[in-house]
Amino acid sequence: MSGDHSSAPVAAQVRHVEALLEERGVLDAGEIDRRIEAFLAGGSPLNGARIVARAWLDPGFRGRLLTDANTALEELGLSMGGGLQEQRLKVVANTDDEHNVVVCTLCSCYPIALLGPSPSWYKSEAYRSRVVREPRGVLREFGLELPASTRITVWDASAESRYLVLPRRPEGTAGRTEEELAGLVTRNGLIGTAAV
């Protein structure tokens, strides 16, 4: 058998504790797996696109989203919980003068229950360290060239707090439906490494 199995002892301990909790009636058999599946089942970048499109069309929703995102999500039937402990979501809006980008400098904290798994580059040490030091250069590598006058704010996600970027609505999109607007939003736009 080849490869790094340094986590095997930890996995065995976790399975042992899970078995003990099931034996003692604290957990039903398979409950942890069901909760993890529920946590991951609803997450998709499409949820973020729906949130952004609604915020672009509904100024009241936008205000509520920027003030208390967790509560505003409920209006769309969404949440950050996914069956596990609720995390705090903060939505930060891009403007003509400011661009926001999200990172987790410690590991890879990301709103998985809402947006699904993070992109692989988001977890890379290169992204996590460089975007804080040289955000303009990193964004340029993603193809996003911002004017020198645009202030870039880097938000550091944590175990308790996650972030979602509310991109600026593209020009020339007046009259589009919410569904059409949602189709413009990318996962990278929700992180801030793309304009939309």
Overview of the structural elements:
Helix 3 (45-57) packs across helix 4. The chain has 11 helices and 4 strands. The protein has 2 domains: 4-39, no CATH class; 43-191, Nitrile hydratase alpha /Thiocyanate hydrolase gamma (Nitrile Hydratase, Chain A, Alpha-Beta Complex). The chain has helices at 8-23, 31-41, 45-57, 59-67, 69-74, 112-115, 120-123, 125-133, 135-141, 178-182, 187-191; strands at 88-93, 98-103, 151-156, 161-166. It is globular and about 60 Å long. The strands form 2 sheets. The chain has a two-stranded parallel ribbon. Strands 2-3 form a two-stranded parallel ribbon.
Q: What are the main properties of this structure?
A:
single chain, 196 residues, alpha/beta, Nitrile Hydratase, Chain A, 2 domains, two-stranded parallel sheet, two-stranded parallel ribbon, 45% helix, 12% strand, globular, disordered N terminus
